[in-house]
Amino acid sequence: MSPRSAIDRASDDGETYRPHYSGWWLVQAATQWAWNWGSCPPGSAPLSPPSKRWTGSAPFDEPEIPAAIADVLGDEGTGVVTGATVTGVRRDGRGRSVLLKTAAGGERERACEQVLVAAGRRPVSAGSRGEILTDTRQRTGNPRIWAAGDVTGGPPYVYTAAAQRSAAANALFQSEREVDYTALPRVTFASPAIASAGLTEAELVRSGVACDCRVLPLAAVPRAIANRDSRGLVKLVAEAGTGRIRGVHAV
């Protein structure tokens, strides 16, 4: 069932539809609605999951990135609600409203014309986050079964799933091929766009390597100033001592 039909059915039946939100996917679609298609008036709010920080796929993002995006959304008149749980969506006449429960335990209701639901993915299996556990060659706990794609809990990208699939296929023929995520590219087609490649600062530190990281705001970049839009930043994740670049993250 599509998100829209689910909302309409819930509204018609007088029930409450309780969606799950999927972070960056919702931001990507919401900015397209708000700025390219003119569907969202100022004050509309992309809703984020109730996580410690507004990152969607938290293990794969730097904390500076969502902060920069939130600033840009605010400048454009689009609100961001964090740390809130969506408890329902209702329709009254031609309008709709979203019911929220805040982190402090209070309840809010936001009126709107349309509701966009990014449903996300939630597999049910053995991992702590609901993912299917695999080894480095995508083999599960069952020696006859391999797994690839979003269900493994890794980066949720098509090319990641394709690489995992290839590793699993090669494992059938006793190949030693493994998936290497160290230079993984990531793009969120929001406005402004978000791009990353390689490790985050936290991932580098967890690997036992000291990080010498730098954050460059676009306000210090002449080209951005010339373009009259200096919102955003570039973060470089480098090894302390050697200066080797291990990750780049930009808005």
List the helices and strands and how they pair.
Blueprint: H1 3-13, H2 24-36, H3 64-75, E1 85-92, E2 95-101, E3 107-112, H4 158-171, E4 185-188, E5 194-198, H5 201-206, E6 214-217, H6 222-226, E7 233-238, E8 245-250
Antiparallel strand pairs: 1-2, 2-3, 4-5, 5-8, 6-7, 7-8
Description of the molecule:
By secondary structure, the protein is an alpha+beta fold. The protein has three domains: 110 residues, FAD/NAD(P)-binding domain (3-Layer(bba) Sandwich); 59 residues, no CATH class; 52 residues, Enolase-like, domain 1. It contains six helices and eight strands. The chain has a five-stranded antiparallel β-sheet. It has a three-stranded antiparallel β-sheet with strand order 1-2-3. It is globular, with a radius of gyration of 21 Å. The two termini are 34 Å apart.
What's this entry about, in short?
The protein is α+β, with helices and mostly antiparallel strands and about 250 residues long. It has helices at about 5-15, 25-35, 65-75, 160-170, 200-205, 220-225; strands at about 85-90, 95-100, 105-110, 185-190, 195-200, 215, 235-240, 245-250.
Distance separating the two termini: 34 Å
CATH homologous superfamily heading of the largest domain: FAD/NAD(P)-binding domain
Order of helices and strands: HHHEEEHEEHEHEE
Oligomer: single chain
Sheet/helix structural class: alpha+beta
Mean pLDDT over the full residue set:
75
CATH architecture of the largest domain: 3-Layer(bba) Sandwich
Rg from alpha-carbon coordinates: 21 Å
What's the number of helices? Answer: 6
Shape: globular
Q: What would CATH call the class of the largest domain?
A: Alpha Beta
How would a crystallographer describe the biggest sheet? Answer: 5 strands, antiparallel
